[in-house]
Amino acid sequence: MPESKNTIERTLSILETVAHSTNGLTNSDISRRLKIPKSSASYILRVLEKRGYLLRETNSGKYRIGLKLMSLTREVSTHLDVREVARPIMEDFVKRTSLSTHLAVLDNGRAVYVEKVENPNSFIKMDIWVGHRLPVHSTAIGKILVSQMTETEILAILELRGMEKKTPKTITNQKKFLKELENVKTYGFAVDNEENSFDVRCVASPVYDSQGKIIAALGTSDTIIRLDEAHLPKIVEMVKNSAEKISKIFGYEVKP
């Protein structure tokens, strides 16, 4: 039994090591990194290659992740409900920040809330509910959800849904909105500074699937006074961190 357990641990370690390598690894590389006998590594690698979990390059002898493992990852992802995965992480966010948090997806050119967690002790309640549909141009979650789209796709949504001026700070110019999305892609988060509601600031970050596609937006909202400039950087990092945790469960490899 101990030997069997040791083999299983080595097998999993090899898979994880190869998965995190950029250019693939040889038998010698793996043996050296994991400090296991070359003969033992060779045996495990041959079995993993035979079963399709690893691929071996003929010229270099380097091993890479195989299609079998990739297909299993996709199958798991399709059966995961983003709300179910996100809920515990959202609850932890609320405990650490005392701020409410929400999860949204894109549906027919609108950002739709699919989950929310509120601080039960807060005297301030945001006007948010599951099923609430909001425009993309005036919300942090909306900016996130369309940030990965092509310019043509984004403009099509803006033409379809319009760019209603919700407050004096709402972006109503298409070119300015596209510029805003460039910043969103660069920094990995979006902010709504009283663009959808007076005295309310929102922050959101993307949730990715295993293929790097944005599948949801995780956000938080509060008054300008509570979510002021002094506290904003810390909250942004916490939102990004929580979104990354959800993304990792869906198989997304967060870049350092």
Report what the structure shows.
It is a single chain. The chain has 256 residues and is of the alpha+beta class. It has helices at residues 2-19, 27-34, 38-50, 67-79, 82-97, 140-146, 151-161, 174-187, 232-249, and strands spanning 54-56, 63-65, 101-107, 110-117, 133-134, 190-193, 200-208, 214-223. The chain folds into two domains: 2-75, Orthogonal Bundle (Arc Repressor Mutant, subunit A), CATH 1.10.10; 80-249, GAF domain (Beta-Lactamase), CATH 3.30.450. It contains nine helices and eight strands. The strands form two sheets. The chain has a six-stranded antiparallel sheet with strand order 5-4-3-8-7-6. It is elongated. The two termini are 38 Å apart.
Please describe the topology of this protein.
Blueprint: H1 2-19, H2 27-34, H3 38-50, E1 54-56, E2 63-65, H4 67-79, H5 82-97, E3 101-107, E4 110-117, E5 133-134, H6 140-146, H7 151-161, H8 174-187, E6 190-193, E7 200-208, E8 214-223, H9 232-249
Antiparallel strand pairs: 1-2, 3-4, 3-8, 4-5, 6-7, 7-8
Helix pairs in contact: 1-3, 2-3, 5-9
Give a brief description.
The protein is of the alpha+beta class and about 260 residues long. The protein is built from nine helices and eight strands.
